[in-house]
Amino acid sequence: MEREIYFDNSATTQVHPEVADLMHETMIRNYGNPSSLHKKGVQAEQAVSHVRKILAGALQVAPEEIYFTSGGTESNNTAIKGIVHAYKSRGNHIITSNVEHPSVLNVFDHLEELGFRVTYLRVNENGVIDLDELQDLLCNDTLLVSLMHVNNEVGSIQPIKEVGEILKGYHKKVYYHVDAVQSFGKLPVYPGKWGIDLLSISGHKFHGPKGIGALYIRKGTRVKALVEGGGQEKSLRSGTENVPGIVGLGKAAELAVQDREAHAQKMNAIRETLASRIREKVPNCRINSNFDGTGAPHILNISFPGTRSEVLLHYLEQDGIYVSSGSACSARKGKLSHVLTAMQLTEEEMEGSIRFSFSYFNEMDEVMPVVESVTKAVKELRELTGRK
Amino acid sequence: MYELILVRYGELGLKGKNKSQFINRLILNIKRGIKDLAPREVRSTWGRIWVPVHDDLDQLLEKLQMVFGIYSVSPVVKTEKDLEEIKKAALRVLHDSLPQGGSFKVETRRSDKTFPLTSPEISKKVGSYLFVHSPDIYRADMHHPQHTIEVEIRAEGAFVYGQVVPGAKGLPVGSSGRAVLMLSGGIDSPVAGWMAMKRGVTIEGVHFHSFPFTSERAKQKVLDICQVLARWGGKMRLHVVHFTEIQKAIRQHCREEYGITIMRRMMFRLAERIALKNKAYAIYTGESVGQVASQTLESMFTINNVTNMPVLRPLVGMDKEEIIKIAQKIGTYDISIRPYEDCCTLFLPDYPKIRPRLDEAEAMEKNLDIEGLLQEALEKTEVIEIVQEEI
Q1: What are the φ/ψ torsions at residue A302 (nearest 5 degrees)?
Q2: Chain B partners of A314 at a C-beta cutoff of 8 Å?
Q3: Which of A263, B76, B102, B127 could anchor a disulfide with B146, C-beta 3.0 to 4.6 Å?
């Protein structure tokens, strides 16, 4: 295969070579257990502390508010279950949206079975929640609000900061968790200032390794641990620290954040160009992502009615182009996307929806080959599968 | 405590002068079936096969149960030709193979006539020893025993065994020639393949791959299924036919409701050609009557018309439930239910023809360059040797 064009960066990213080098170095030299009393232990502990500072700096919070986990799913689980179990005497009502990642939605489902009252905020046709609806839902019994910052399927941005304002102004403390897995490194996120109590991030979404993530927990917030053991991470997350993973996460965060605005502009330019070229060349397609400031710079979701996204994906694969059909997780279950359903797309539009997602590794000259392949594939597929 | 496993072969005994050929095949298959265990000599004497145990009884039994042609097996204790030794061995065998207690009797065969006691005498002495030395839960019963403890006195020693473990039965794979199996990745076709193997047939899988209409994962699924089948058949070859162009051509040139009929006709044509090229003389499929539109008798008639080769459908009289049960037993079920589409639903018409007519199908195929399409598909066919992996 000639050239590879990887437009599936919201599924996962290539590890940055600098990150991989540093991890390799850490694995063979700084291999100590941070809990050990000797020098090897101290060195490993220092490496972990250094990353805590990097992440704290990036989020503008205190280092002791950063906890390492195995990734986004564990961070989301820990945050939500940890809060409701620690504070269940304070309320029984929890709120989220109906376009969350399964690692939030399924936790809410489970809590509903346990007897919590769950409300799902609806989204408009742009995939964005309504602040007035949230305001109306808050009550004396409300314990937690959990929202994603950037939607993984369509890239819609939720008004995270404004929600923080509403919750700050409410007469009763309502805990606030944000799933920032898709936004960290792409959009500004300042949990300290924005009234966010817990915030999840995941290393492999910004050129870090898989199997490592972090959870910000505001100082003074009690969270019940999911994993018991040797008491690492102040007993929030027992288990010997994944030192190479943490070091990789730190390096990747540093690289993502230091040029964040330039990266975002570059990705957004690629996104806009791809969207407008496809719109010019492919008749009857529907752009499901926003360009008015409520769309993330790195996600472009387009429906090609009359095609099947899985087949379209394999067509593009033949040209060395990698994309996603809907979100990688829901695409496999053979059902229609809950996000696109919530945005009220037609069945045909959902069946033919493709997600292109970018990183700062992508270049503008990758756009035209993709436009050409998409145009050709959609045309051929529509001819083949058009009902006779 | 067990030194040997006694392997009994059932139907083989009936095969007259081909018998030695069948036994050699069975021994070969046993050796292949246990090749992951420590090496050992597999011998055939006295109308049975003997496999030494090297401290690995459970693994050995498990592997032997997957070799077709074995009727049953028994773990055997070997002792000196000394009555006291034989009694002790029999007691251990009884307690080990019948731990819950129950009724038993002892049967003896004595081919070494130098042994001072006759067979009935040995049975009697061993039997009363067992009775005296066992707790109350064991009873002697000469007529309808739950268990028979067998004693054999041979030149090289005495053999004692009791437990009878059923084998996979059937005939040794490789003893009944070769056939192709149309393998989709669904639940049925692997079961059909297993049943072919059970009758001693060597199977070559034929899978129709329609990338990009089906994914690489659908192909991986079929490879994984072959891997499981190879545990039963030793090894197998898979022909992955490039079917994409045929799918497209049918879609473009034939009426939608005949799409499946003509697709199946093309598949049988390809299967037949692959079979002939590989000295295979039948086509196995997982079809059952009435399951889907292409499996009505009218469909089968119209589809089957493209080949004179025997098309064997071992599942034809089975219900889905029965098929699933076998799939679970042989280990293909969990692979088959993985969600990746095997025969792309993209090409499934909303209303497929349930009673497709032969003349109509033939007329519609006039729009296709059948020979050209078949040639191209065969040229782009990938042949994969599936070698049994260690489990």
Answers
A1: -130, 140
A2: 211-215
A3: B102
Minimum mean pLDDT range among B158-162, B256-260, B298-302 = B256-260
CA distances from A75 to A55, A177, B248 (A): 15, 10, 47
> pLDDT at residue A272 above 70?
yes
Q: Are B269 and B236 in contact (CB under 8 A)?
A: no
Answer yes or no: do B213 and A311 touch at CB < 8 A. yes
Give the closest residue to B305 by CA, choosing from B254, B358, B348: B358
Token pair 């290539």: residue: A14
Angstrom distance (rounded) from CA B286 to CA B183 = 8
Q: How confident is the model at residue B375 (pLDDT cuts 50, 70, 90)?
A: very high
pLDDT tens-place string over residues B72-109:
999 999 999 999 999 999 999 999 888 888 899 999 99
The answer to whether A310 contacts B341, with C-beta atoms less than 8 Å apart, is yes
Among residues of chain A, what percentage have pLDDT more than 90?
90
Q: What is the pLDDT of residue B218?
A: 87
Using CA atoms, how far apart are residues B243 and B263, in angstroms rounded to an integer? 10
**Cβ distance A185 to A13 under 8 Å?**
no
Q: Which two tokens stand for residue B367?
A: 């729009």
Cα A18 to Cα A11, A14, A21, A252, A264, distances in angstroms? 21, 11, 5, 8, 20
Average pLDDT over residues B221-238: 92
Residue of B nearest to A334 (CA): B339
Residues of A in contact with B341 (CB under 8 A): 310
Average pLDDT in chain A: 94
- Size of chain B, expressed as the number of residues it contains: 391
ipTM beyond cut 0.85: no
* Domain range list for chain B: 4-166, 178-386
Fold of B4-166: VC0802-like (3.30.2130)
Which residue in A has a C-alpha nearest to residue B214's C-alpha? A311
Q: Please state the CATH superfamily assignment of the domain spanning residues B178-386 in this structure.
A: HUPs (3.40.50.620)
Tell me the domains of chain A and their CATH numbers: 5-14+259-385 (3.90.1150.10), 17-258 (3.40.640.10)
Which range of B8-17, B211-220, B358-367 scores highest in mean pLDDT? It is B358-367
